[in-house]
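All the exercises in this workshop are built on plain-text protein records. Sequence and backbone structure share a record, each on its own labelled line. The question running through the whole workshop is how a given chain folds. The record below serves as our worked example for the rest of this section.
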Amino acid sequence: MKIAVIGSGVAGMTAALTLARKGHQVEVFEQFNRVGGVTGGMEADGFAWDYGQLVVEAFEKQEYIGAILDELGVLDKISVVRDEREYSFPDFTIRVPKEYGGLLWRMEFLKNQFPEEAAGLDAYWKDYVRFTRLVTLGGRMEKEGIGTKIAFYLTLLPFLPRMKCSAEKLLASYFRSEKLKCVFMSILADFFTPPSQFPGLGIFSLNGEITFEKRMPAQLAKNAVMTRFYSIIGGLKTLMQAMEEAVQSCEGSIHLNCAIEKIVLKDGRACGVVDQHGKAHDCDLVIASGGAKETFTRLLPEGSLTQKFIDKVLSIPLMGSVFMIHLGVDYDPSEVLHTVCTYFYGSYDIEGEVKRARAGIYHEGEAGFVVHFPSLRSPAMAPKGKHALTIYTICPDKLADGDWETRKEEYADKLLEFAEKKLPGLRKHIVVRHILSPVELRKLTHLDHHAFGGLAPVMNSWKIPHKTPIEGLWFIGAQSESGGGINNVIPSSFKVAKRILKENK
């Protein structure tokens, strides 16, 4: 088959590589002068930064992402290092202890902070282990026999009453303290999803204990294995470069500076694409990996889809954008930043902050921010004696008051003021500063309707089917998967490509 892939982000490249390795003729079309899409980065004055997902999970050979990358022949082309994260709240900081405190160290820490919640923390931990066992068994069912399937469904039974439970409701069943609930709900801000709308059982996945402690063994209990937390040495560009080389080694073509302007249909079937230069490219299948609204409302001929389908596409909940500052600094911040990724929260009101952001109200950094410190693990991402930092916050895609273009410098200064309270002396050590507001991100991602986000993980929301109503047109990427992110997008794109192979034998 001849297959056209729109977009060279991690979704498009995963699908392209899977198909190219099976001997199919693959052409990837990328609007920019390099592969990567949102999984990209930038360089300036000897510094390098990512602007997509900053840390990854399950990247070793025995883990689910690593197994896919190994099958695709790229795992041995990248290097990863085990990592962890740190959470700082207004009243306390969850910091990895110098001496390993065992599987329960975070739970014991929280018991000291919230002694009245000890029973609830014990109950949460037991359910966390059970849920980890459920996920582990689920991943093994296809390869193992009836015994694993029976064990899976028996483990599932206690969770069935909670399948339609929100994160807010789930955590209320364990804890009374709003501050303690925030410890487990805080990461939801990244997804631009209020706890009242987030699927409750997802809390166990988002709070993997192993992400707070790299010394913790992956095996929690029998049939309970956690996925590990990693930094990619050299940043995400090394993964994308490895994928690019692998596609080309399989005789696949990658067209850079070549945005797609139209998907061509014949008798209702996708049969080609037209690029920005007006050149037509015939194919048997089209795989679109960009924005949902852009794909289904701009690239297809008018009237190709029912209005009902278009209305559903336009109504899908998307994650918010981010306001991001890339910094090059001439000092070592490791005395304060102990991990590659540190979350600083200024508020315990996750529900309120997300809803205000959805309404176009930007907190300016007061509600919290994240500091990514890539050169802590990858010294080559900064000149000798200097370091690369990225500081970012969630933010509205469009402001209720003013616009990003005119206010970005003001907001950058305010964000750095808040950051300096945690990183004393930061501003006097800045030698390079690059601002990425939603406006700049929109230009980088080619998304007219939204700057950055994937599909928000909102309960009962509709997902665009990978096999679209247009015959021969498939849809993959961050806006096809709840929560987006590399760890969702790589396996889903891989499965879609496998499905295409199976259906077109």
Q: What stands out?
A: Residues 118-140 form the longest helix (23 residues). The chain has a mean pLDDT of 94.
